[in-house]
C-alpha cells in the first residue's frame, strides 16, 4: 500500500479524490530496478503500468526512436489499459530507479467498472502521452485518438 499523499503528486492521478486514491493505493506497489534492467519489452503482453518516482528511463520504439524520462511522474506501460494490451516500446533503466507499479489487469478492470474514475485516469494518461506524440508510431497515435 502506498500513501495517498504520495499518489496524488503524480499527474496521471491528480484529479482523483481521496477515496479513489485510497482504492488505488491498495493495488499499488513500490518497485526498485537496477541500471540496465529492462522493464518492458516491445510486443509483449502489457501487464504493468509504471510511474517513475526516481531515476532515469529510456523508452525505445521499434523504429529506432527513443526518449528519456527523468522526472518523477513519468508514465510507462500505458498499453496495459489500451487494447490490444501489448507494449509498443521497450523501457530500460538508465540508472537505478524507484517506480510505483500497478497490475495492468486490475487497473483495467477498475477503469472499465468505475467510469468516473476511469475517465479521470485515462484523460490524464492522454495528457501525458500527448506530449510524447511526436515520438509515437502512427498506430499508437490512432489508438490514442480512438480512446478519447
Short synopsis of the structure:
By secondary structure, the chain is an alpha+beta fold. It is built from five helices and eight strands. A four-stranded antiparallel beta sheet has the order 1-8-3-6. Strands 2-7-4-5 form a four-stranded antiparallel beta sheet, with no helix packed on it.
> What coarse outline follows from CA principal-axis ratios?
globular
Label the CATH architecture. Sandwich
Beta content comes to 15-25%
Helix percent reads 25-40%
How many β strands by DSSP?
8
Which regions contain 5 or more consecutive residues with pLDDT less than 50?
none
CATH topology: Jelly Rolls
Going by CATH, the homologous superfamily would be Jelly Rolls
Computed CA radius of gyration, to the nearest angstrom? 14 Å
Amino acid at each position: 500500500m502506498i500513501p495517498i499523499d504520495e499518489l496524488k503528486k503524480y499527474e496521471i492521478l491528480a484529479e482523483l479524490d481521496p477515496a479513489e486514491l485510497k482504492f488505488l493505493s491498495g493495488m499499488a506497489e513500490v518497485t526498485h530496478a537496477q541500471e540496465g534492467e529492462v522493464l518492458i519489452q516491445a510486443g509483449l503482453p502489457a501487464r504493468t503500468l509504471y510511474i517513475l518516482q526516481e531515476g532515469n528511463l529510456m523508452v525505445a520504439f521499434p523504429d529506432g526512436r527513443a526518449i528519456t524520462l527523468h522526472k518523477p511522474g513519468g508514465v510507462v506501460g500505458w498499453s496495459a489499459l489500451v487494447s490490444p494490451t501489448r507494449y509498443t516500446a521497450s523501457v530500460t533503466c538508465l540508472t537505478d530507479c524507484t517506480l510505483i507499479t500497478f497490475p495492468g489487469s486490475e487497473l483495467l478492470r477498475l477503469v472499465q467498472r468505475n467510469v468516473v474514475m476511469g475517465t479521470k485516469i485515462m484523460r490524464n494518461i492522454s495528457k501525458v502521452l500527448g506530449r510524447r506524440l511526436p515520438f509515437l508510431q502512427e498506430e499508437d497515435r490512432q489508438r490514442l485518438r480512438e480512446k478519447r
